[in-house]
Request: fold
Amino acid sequence: MKKIAISLLALAAATSAFAQTTQTCVSVDEKQIAGLFDRWNASLKTLDPSRVVANYTADAVLLATVQNQPRLTQDDRLNYFTKFLKLTPQGTINSSTIKIGCNTASDVGTYTFKLKDGSQVAARYSYIYSYQNGEWLISHHHSSAMPEKI
Reply:
């Protein structure tokens, strides 16, 4: 009898924990997720690093294209974009694969950045977005230059 009572208590606790962690999933489609890159790219055009950083969650991880140091705070990201925006970068998506979950989405693919000196940088990217406080924000952003010269 004692074992059954403990099992029932464990089941009740698990059920309670499940009830507390359920969430409502916001409806979103691939076109809307693809538009998040456009929003980020438009913020680059402003040349205002704070506008770019506003696209990221407070605890986002940025593994940037042109620096080795992971950017883990908004100040770190602000510092990175202050330098990066001096190149006046503008990105174009070359390939994209979007996956959508409950209040999260990923966009993984390749893009090319055109810089003010006319040069271009081809890179791979991954964005993970999370829906927080009524908006989609970047919680993870990895970008790395293409390793092969074609």
User: Anything to note?
Assistant: The chain is about 35% helix and 35% strand. The helical segments are 2-21, 30-45, 49-53, 74-84. The two ends are 71 Å apart (CA to CA).
